[in-house]
């Protein structure tokens, strides 16, 4: 395993850990909100907004992790018919296309987060920069995962398909 693959694996590991912590926090916040509304008769002013922003982070980090682990929906009619170097070549082309999208997410996300940084959320007064920061961070993580995947596939082409990626393992 090369350095880029190790970095990708480590980033994915910490990203999934952080996502799990956010999911636990989301569960606690929603539970408190339901209990407050049901048994105390009043809704918390901050819970829905906080849950929404946590959910955005979960979605963006989960999208990056899903890309790494090959869990996104894909139309594989052509890919299923290809084997060996042809399959890896098509995978490289697809990953390069996705890489352009990830670069766009990073660049546009940074621009958006900086542009919106003066705005505060209505209920919790959180600087919206922190909410929109999920977009470029997700894009950066996707770039790391895609660079690793492309590198692995290029090595697989030149090594006679002895190098397997996460997508190869999930396809079996």
Commentary on this structure:
- The chain is mainly alpha-helical.
- It has one domain (about 5-170).
- Helices cover about 75% and strands about 0% of the residues.
- The chain is built from seven helices and no strands.
- The two termini are about 20 Å apart.
- About 25% of the residues are buried.
Radius of gyration: 20 Å
Average pLDDT works out at 91
Count helical runs: 7
Overall geometry: elongated
* Terminal-residue CA separation: 20 Å
Report the major sheet: none
Poorly predicted regions are: none
Structural class: mainly alpha
Q: How much beta, percentage-wise? A: under 5%
Order of helices and strands: HHHHHHH
Helix content: over 70%
SSE layout:
Layout: H1 3-39, H2 47-69, H3 77-81, H4 84-116, H5 129-132, H6 134-158, H7 166-171
Features:
mainly alpha, 0% strand, 7 helices, 172 residues, 77% helix
Could you write a compact summary of the structure shown?
The chain is an all-alpha fold. The protein contains 7 helices and no strands.
């Amino acid at each position: 395993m090369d350095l880029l693959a190790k970095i990708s694996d480590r980033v994915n590991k910490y990203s999934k850990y952080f996502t799990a912590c956010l999911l636990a926090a989301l569960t606690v916040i929603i539970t408190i909100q339901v209990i407050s509304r049901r048994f105390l008769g009043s809704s918390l002013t901050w819970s829905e907004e906080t849950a929404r922003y946590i959910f955005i982070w979960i979605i963006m980090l989960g999208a990056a992790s899903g890309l790494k682990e090959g869990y996104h929906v894909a139309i594989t009619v052509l890919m299923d018919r290809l084997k060996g170097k042809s399959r890896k070549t098509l995978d490289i082309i697809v990953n390069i296309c996705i890489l352009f999208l990830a670069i766009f997410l990073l660049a546009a996300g940074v621009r958006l987060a900086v542009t919106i940084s003066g705005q505060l959320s209505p209920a919790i007064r959180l600087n919206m920069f922190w909410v929109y920061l999920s977009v470029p961070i997700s894009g950066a993580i996707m770039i790391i995962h895609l660079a690793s995947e492309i590198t692995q596939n290029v090595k697989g082409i030149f090594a006679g398909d002895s190098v397997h990626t996460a997508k190869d393992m999930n396809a079996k």
